[in-house]
Amino acid sequence: MPTLHGKVALVTGASRGVGRGVALGLGEAGATVYVTGRTLGGRHPEMPFLVGSLEETAADVTALGGQGVPVQCDHRDDAQTRAVIERITEEYGHLDVLVNNVWGGYEGLHRWDERGQAWNAPFWEQPLSIWNDMFDSGVRAHYVTTALAAPLLIAARGLVVNISFFAGGRHRGSENIPYFLAKNADDRMAEAFANHLRPHRVAAVSLYPGLVRTEGVLLAPEGAFDLSNSESPQFLGRAVAHLAADPGVLDRTGQVLVAAELAGEYGFTDIDGRRPRSIRPEFEAEGPGPESA
């Protein structure tokens, strides 16, 4: 693992899932990791069947060799986001890594009932709230957090990582439209951040995982996912840690990166010692049309 001792990171939406995994990957490398989310002591306020909390994530970060700092924050509220950045400013005065992970809109996928089935329904049959969930709790939150954190990132010549997915590349027919547009926006946002931050020696990238074994995915009915090439959440964290430790990371700024491909370049593996293959070719091979969604 690379060494990030003395580095400060902020991972948004880290009570569980991908955000938790990213925090653990940074903790392995010795970073101080602020982890934000709504679940501070107890269960998810809207999905109590999902386990995980900020205290648990922070404790595991510390156990791995870093320092975990749990901060309750609903990133739909700009004042709460500002308070997190102000706290980091007071306690450290710089921010080396910002990981924009917090996301809304997945609730249906975790229920596996009528609400979950609506995910794949035609857009006119989906709840209109899906749009706001993804853009307010995701895209907008990423923009606001980065804007508020920019002075700290510039002070550290740091790194911004937008967690995205292949859905942002092109629409393949019956894909969830708000999800496609939101992920596309996250990718373009990272590119735009890079343009503004490059003169200040701050890098910004969009990072794609493969199929991640999050708590929600593991709750799925048997056979819903083929987990043979899946990744632990911590695998993505190892990708972020290697990027953060790379003195040449500015050469990647503005790019869309894939965790499995970075594993091949940097030489790291998942927590089980395996190295998942990139699923980029599968998405690039799919043409438009419902049959390929």
Report on the structure:
- The protein is α/β, with parallel strands linked by helices.
- It has a single domain (8-292), classed as Rossmann fold.
- Helices cover 43% and strands 12% of the residues.
- The protein contains eleven helices and seven strands.
- It has a seven-stranded parallel β-sheet, sandwiched between helices.
- Helix 1 packs parallel to helix 2 and helix 3 (78-91) runs parallel beside helix 6.
- Residues 288-293 have low confidence and may be disordered.
SSE layout and pairing:
Elements: E1 8-11, H1 17-28, E2 32-37, H2 54-63, E3 67-72, H3 78-91, E4 97-100, H4 107-111, H5 114-117, H6 129-156, E5 159-163, H7 177-197, E6 203-208, H8 215-218, H9 233-245, E7 256-258, H10 259-266, H11 280-285
Parallel strand pairs: 1-2, 1-4, 2-3, 4-5, 5-6, 6-7
Helix pairs in contact: 1-2, 1-9, 3-6, 6-7, 9-10
Protein name: Oxidoreductase
Region (Disordered): 271-293
Pfam families: adh_short
